[in-house]
Amino acid sequence: QVQVVESGGGFVQAGGSLRLSCAASGTIFRITHMDWYRQAPGKQRELVAALDSGGTTNYADSVKGRFTISRDNAKNVVYLQMNSLKPEDTAVYYCNVYFTTWGTRWGQGTQVTVSS
Questions:
Q1: Which pLDDT tens digit goes with each residue over 8-29?
Q2: What is the mean pLDDT of residues 2-6?
Q3: Are 33 and 52 in contact (CB under 8 A)?
Q4: Please, are residues 22 and 107 in contact by the beta-carbon 8 Å criterion?
Q5: pLDDT tens per residue across span 36-66
Q6: What is the dihedral of CA 31, 36, 79, 1, to 10 degrees?
Q7: What is d(CA 85, CA 13) in angstroms, rounded to the nearest whole number?
Q8: Which of 1, 28, 63, 110 could form a Cys-Cys staple with 9, CB 3.0–4.6 A?
């Protein structure tokens, strides 16, 4: 089995930065993509940033130029560097990992709160 665990959330003022981490562990043969989603209160979960095994990235329009997704393949860790944070970035951020053996797994989420 596998586990996906996020960390790095917290409270920050508008304009500040945070870096989220997501570590996959367990019996891992191959990971095809590792993505970040977020869900704000009363809203649907949305894709924030995606990174496939070939290094192709995809960002939501609302975070382009401010957020950067990266991955350490050796450690099975994906990062989300968030700069110039805005109050509307406040949400629970979830990591989604697709394992070729196990399918999709979600982390438990990490809260990001941006004050104005």
A1: 999 999 999 999 999 999 888 8
A2: 94
A3: yes
A4: yes
A5: 999 999 999 999 999 988 899 999 999 999 9
A6: -40
A7: 8
A8: 110
Please give the C-alpha separations between residue 20 and each of 29, 60, 102, in angstroms, as whole numbers.
24, 17, 24
> Minimal CA–CA distance to 2: which of 81, 110, 104, 112?
104
Q: Identify the band that residue 87 occupies on the pLDDT scale cut at 50, 70 and 90.
A: very high
CA dihedral 1, 77, 32, 108 (to 10 degrees): 60
Q: Is 10 left (phi over 0), alpha (psi -120 to 50) or beta?
A: left
Rounded-to-integer distance, Cα 84 and Cα 109, Å: 21
Kindly state the tokens that stand for 44: 């649907």
pLDDT tens sequence across 73-86: 899 999 999 999 99
Contact indicator for 13, 115 with CB cutoff of 8 Å = yes
* Residue 1 burial (C-beta neighbours within 10 Å; 0-12, 13-18, 19+): exposed
